[in-house]
Write a structure and sequence with these properties.
- By secondary structure, this protein is of the alpha+beta class.
- The protein contains eight helices and six strands; from the N terminus they run ααβαααβββαβαβα.
- The strands form two sheets. A four-stranded antiparallel β-sheet has the order 1-2-6-5. A two-stranded antiparallel sheet has the order 3-4.
- Strand 3 and strand 4 form a beta hairpin.
- The termini are far apart.
Length: 223
């Protein structure tokens, strides 16, 4: 497709005072975002999930190749199979697959082998990265900046989940190759993350350590 410039179709710029206020409001709302492991079984309409994924699909990507695919799972039987496979990998991880340093780093977060959130949450969203594309003749097409592009899309996805008033958990069993078979995805796609999505349970907890965020002066340098 040749380059063809078009007029910027949307302008959302704000007056300076309003921009400062809106950025503060967004920051304060994002401070209320938490990774939650305790989910309510209350159903979530499919339309909300569709809107959330559509928002993630608006993320920028290298050469606009959009090297991602999202699989949304409501079916309990499928969620059970994913949980069983994930807990098998977690068993290997916690019984020798991970270094002592890694296990120690996870201790304040309170993670373990059991993953009830994979069946308790009304939806799972599995994120796949397209390692390379395929042309119409079946040959490979190189994708550019795949990890960066998919990482940005996952940021959009998590923010969209929070914006919809829902919670999620960023779950990354390792290895995750089993997800290709369970989700029917081709070999050129690599599973990156499982996101249980829903409402928090009435007795939901988060680890105290999760509230410890680096202050601005540690994450920002201004010249």
């Amino acid at each position: 497709m040749p380059y063809e410039p078009i007029k910027l179709p949307d302008r959302v710029q704000l007056p300076e005072d309003e921009a400062i206020q809106q950025s503060k409001i967004f920051f304060e709302y994002m401070c209320k975002r938490h990774s939650v492991r305790d989910f309510s079984s209350n159903p979530i309409p499919k339309k909300i999930i569709e809107n959330i994924v559509a928002a993630a699909g608006r993320a920028p990507s290298g050469a606009n190749q959009q090297p991602w695919h999202f699989v949304a799972i409501k079916d309990l039987g499928m969620k059970k199979r994913i949980r069983e496979a994930a807990e098998k990998e977690e068993q290997n991880f916690y019984t020798g697959g991970a270094s002592d340093e890694w296990i120690s780093a996870l201790e304040p977060i309170g993670t373990g082998i059991s993953k009830p959130h994979l069946t308790d949450a009304p939806w799972l969203i599995v994120v796949f990265a397209e390692r390379y594309g395929k042309k119409t003749d079946g040959s490979r097409r190189k994708n550019y900046y795949v990890p960066e592009s998919v990482g940005i899309a996952m940021g959009f996805l998590i923010a969209a989940i929070h914006n919809a008033g829902l919670v999620c958990l960023e779950h990354t069993p390792n290895p995750m190759k089993f997800l290709n078979d369970l989700c029917g995805r081709p070999e050129n796609e690599k599973p990156i993350m499982i996101l249980p999505v829903g409402n928090p349970s009435e007795d939901a907890n988060i680890p105290k350590a999760a509230k410890l965020k680096k202050p601005l002066n540690e994450i920002l340098t201004v010249f």
